[in-house]
Design goal:
homodimer, FAD/NAD(P)-binding domain, 2 domains, disordered C terminus
């Protein structure tokens, strides 16, 4: 069935409730338009902090806000929890499973997912980090690994349980490695009786010649030094060639190494969401190597001035050089620009092309430790960490009460406590591999007083 | 393989990390014993607040604490994440899948689960509330129901999506009904565009002649009045005879009613955990009607003075009358008593039988509204709610930093916001039943300005 809303108002349909979609909707609040925001989920996810859920510092709800709640005061906006399956640019219709919605302007902001460079079989062993479910699965694996190590009697197997390999040295990989080091070397230190959690090995593997490749080289170096100090083994120029049977095969030049590890986390590649291909099929839009839509200077698709792509899904050539990175500030500015563009067009005006205002790059490494490139100044250490905290609180507060996150952080800061380290899920939390060899002693006896 | 720890210390094995097991372990901290606490989960769950997770006010981690964290300062205590499958009282051994542990004293505190009175097929349609996963499933269903109603065009189906039936008028049922009423009539009021959430029907069905049967009758009446005021339909003397195809069949005297409802929540029966039967098989312990172990005046099993059952799993005749209720204060006092008993026995002393110090009964109904029976005084309304808040914070703080919960509550109190209303899980969050009849108008148009 096709349903074309008959209304005198200009109809804006936004697909995706991430930073781009949400800021577009919010910025259209006072414009004479009728907005429908469609998302498969009922909440906006603050992805920059997802690694803190994966490592047991925050709960999913701490970094999520219900879309209806955020937009309840935008009286011209409806939220629809549904999945878009196709677009018809001729009829100007967005198609879902059970209904269609007509648009005058369409904004697509469905983001990216992770990508295994053609090795999709690695996914089961090495989960990525894009959704709440991904984060909970990482959290489950990390904490199960310590539990399994505590029960394991075979020293080799125990070391495999205590080995954490993070593939990819971008911001997510750096943040994960730092947080797991904090966990193993500080938070969990006194919690186990059989194992010494400080024997954990945390390896961060990066294919390029330095961590955080898009950042200035001196910040990359500072990040590597800080991580090493935290206890992380950083390996650059290292390609992962296989992941199988709890073993990572890594190649550094001619040197091939097999690393036994029960916890392998993927922070390497990205791939555009399926809407990129859908748009290419129906509009003839060009896609880049990872499937992102190449957009015009006004973020529209060539030949379709009323279809816009923003956020991580868009490939926008910044200053004619390279595409803008997939970070929140880019999506936010793009969302606001489109809202303004649509409003001005309704008044018969035009706008100059989109221009991204640099706000800098940030990556947190651990407690009191981050790197920041703010354009006019490069920071590292405590000062960068301080900037990082404030930048994140600023964005969180914009959406919702995230006072709670501040309190959590404040508390964790002084206590090094991580309250959210729960192993949850439908499956029995004890992994099958955690079998103990019979050496006649229970793992609990190894440190208990033993009389023979 | 059988592993018997050789140690000069008296070995106490505790099965279950709920209130009973945890307080037993904590109270044994300074005794000359070696304690092993075994739990399938790695965290203690503060069950009295589970309904707040189910209704989107709190996150699982807010009401959970990692067992290792709570016990990290009890240096004589080891935590083992594992599942007990059998007990051998002759050899004094607790058996798990891959290892055995020897005990001198055994404390079993594995609690209860919910029970469908022989209608286990109802479980899929009417989930209960005992675990974190249960609570997240309830949360998913409640919020999916509102989303589905928003998209539903058929008025009958829409009403079924907006009908919430809670089976069982004990504290959990009362708390769930009150919280869902708060959600529908206050929190979500401005969030939807097509439906009016205040058209939601919330039915609380209780088989007995009044709510909260173990409480004094005047408090039951006050609870019913307060719930009715909140918008809940309370039906007592009402038996559920069938749950099928999103329909509850309820019988009140001779009157049989079929209630179409997409969200049916089970808060009716309890059944002892499987360890009850295990103990009966290996020790000859007597079980009551719901499978709880009937214990001696010192909480041991008859003929087995070193095996104790505490908490919800125990049936302890209070003052020779009726069994103690399955509430946290009972389990806490029992855990402390056993710790003291074991310590005194090691000194060659005995203790008088266990005596429960009444601390009262509490049930919260909604914001500012609760009932409390403190023995010397009965409270309702705001005062009871205040007592409830403080009683819960007291216990939460005992375990961990739950300052955050206080802040959450404080914030929700003034804003009526519920930040944790996420629909999560691996399944596509859109239910199949949410199909729309084709009336030629999209659900979004129903309230949108329409020009024909």
């Amino acid at each position: 069935m096709t349903q074309v809303a008959e209304t005198s108002l200009h109809r804006v349909v936004i697909v995706g409730g991430g930073f781009g979609g949400l800021y577009a909707a919010k910025s259209l609040r006072r414009s004479p338009v009728q907005v429908t925001l469609i998302d498969r989920r009922n909440f906006h996810l603050f992805q920059p902090l997802l690694y803190q859920v994966a490592t047991g510092s925050l709960s999913p709800a701490d970094i999520s806000s219900p879309l209806r709640g955020i937009l309840s005061k935008c009286r011209n906006t409806s939220v629809l929890m549904d999945e878009v399956i196709d677009i018809d640019p001729q009829q100007q219709i967005v198609k879902m499973q059970e209904q269609d919605i007509a648009y005058d302007s369409l904004i697509v902001a469905t983001g990216v997912s992770h990508h295994y460079f053609g090795n999709d079989q690695w996914k089961a062993t090495a989960p990525g980090l894009k959704t709440v479910e991904d984060a909970l699965e990482m959290r489950r694996r990390i904490f199960v690994a310590f539990e399994a190590a505590e029960k394991e009697l075979d020293p080799e197997k125990r070391q495999a349980w205590l080995t954490f390999v993070i593939v990819g040295g971008g911001p997510t990989g750096v943040e994960l490695a730092g947080a797991i080091a904090d966990l193993a070397f500080k938070t969990l230190k006194k919690d186990f009786r059989s194992i010494d959690t400080t024997e954990a090995k945390i390896l961060l593997l990066e294919g390029m010649d330095r961590l955080l490749p898009p950042y200035p080289p001196d910040l990359s170096e500072k990040a590597a030094i800080a991580l090493t100090k935290l206890g992380v083994t950083v390996r650059t120029k290292t390609m992962v060639t296989n992941i199988e049977d709890n073993t990572v095969t890594a190649k550094q030049g001619d040197h091939v190494e097999h690393i036994p590890a029960c916890t392998i986390l993927w922070a390497a590649g990205i791939k555009a969401s399926g809407m990129g291909q859908t748009l290419a099929d129906c509009t003839g839009a060009s896609l880049d190597r990872v499937g992102r839509v190449i957009v015009e200077p006004d973020l529209s698709i060539a030949g379709h001035p009323n279809i816009f792509v923003i956020g991580d899904l868009a490939n926008f050539l910044h200053q004619g050089e390279k595409p803008l990175p997939g970070v929140a500030p880019v999506a936010v500015q793009e969302g606001k620009y489109i809202a303004k563009l649509i409003t001005e067009r309704l008044r018969g005006n035009t706008l100059p092309p989109f221009h991204y205002e640099e706000v800098g790059n940030l990556a947190v490494i651990g407690q009191n430790e981050a790197v920041a490139d703010l354009g006019f100044v490069k920071l590292s250490g405590f000062l960068a960490w301080f900037v990082w905290i404030f930048a994140h609180i600023y964005y969180l507060i914009e959406f919702d009460n995230k006072l709670v996150v501040m309190i959590q952080w404040g508390w964790s800061y002084f206590t090094r406590n991580r309250g959210a380290r729960l192993i949850t899920g439908e499956n029995l939390p004890i992994p099958v591999e955690a079998s103990s060899k019979d050496d006649g002693r229970s793992p609990l006896e190894r440190k208990a007083p033993v009389e023979v």
